[in-house]
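Q: Got a minute? One more chain.
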Amino acid sequence: MKKSLFFAATALSLLVSAGCGDAESSGASEDDTITIAWYPNESGSELEKAREGIGDLVEEATGKTVEHETTTDYIVAIESIVNGNADIAYMGAQGYIEAHDKNENVVPLAVSSGESGTLDDAMYNSWLSVKDGNEGPYEDGDGYSIDNIVDKKFSFVSNSSTSGFKVPSSDIVTHFSEKEEYSDLTQDDLLEGGEFFSEVLFGGSHQGSAVNLLTDKADVAAFCDVCVENYVENVEGEENSIGAVYQVSEDAADPFQSLSGEKFKLISVTPVLNAPFVMNEETLSEDTQSELVEAFTSDETANNEEVFVPEDTDEGLFYKTDNERFLEVEDDWFEPIRELSN
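A: Always. Here it is, folded:
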């Protein structure tokens, strides 16, 4: 018994001396590899170069090796950062909120600014689109209305998507709840066919939702501008304006490869907060966290063409048109998206 107590005490002493007994230390088990998780939207082969640009940034800042975890499901990426299987993730505001709710150690790392280089215009756009030529039921004078989306086949992206579900579903509920017939409508009513829509599909990615529309599986689809901009071109009307028409480019990569020339029209456009990179404070030391924030938000990164690619290329996640850069943000910056569920 005395020998057991001796060995136990010795083991405890060694643990404390190694720093394992320091309750305030974070990332104590940090290894030499940093894993970055990516949503399905950013997991395609056509964005491999863009992912590698971010990976090189992380490796140079920390001296660690980066591994990329590409996914085919939003939930996989969210659970990966929550459970510590990934150290960093790039996700929409809604995905971050869900991850933070599950593990408060998942915090924002950085978010891309708008053209001004500030958070004032750090936004992209959530679209509701119909196939070009099928816009008749949604015309309203010189504009468009979503009044007639009831009983249509509708495609969302994922119920964890900010611009592919949370924002458009909130807009739909807000619009229709003013009508007595739909005064009790909730976002949950939009998840399955029969309640409000005749059928509800989930594309799994913004690209997938757009394909649902263009292949006539859906009458109306929600997806965002930045997630399809590498595959389509504006051919009519002002970009990101209601009534604008976009066409799939001739050299578009999968999943648009067989849809060249197909067109869709915007019937609703809503600004959305830019997507953040987030990190898990449990798996990264405080020093590494500081190195990452400093590297992401540096002038050097803002001028790195492997990260903020020239606007005339089509292989980027982030484009340099003016003063774009990464900025540090706090959790409360995402409060407007949280409020959409209240």
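A: The CA atoms of residues 84 and 232 lie 36 Å apart.
Q: Perfect, thanks.
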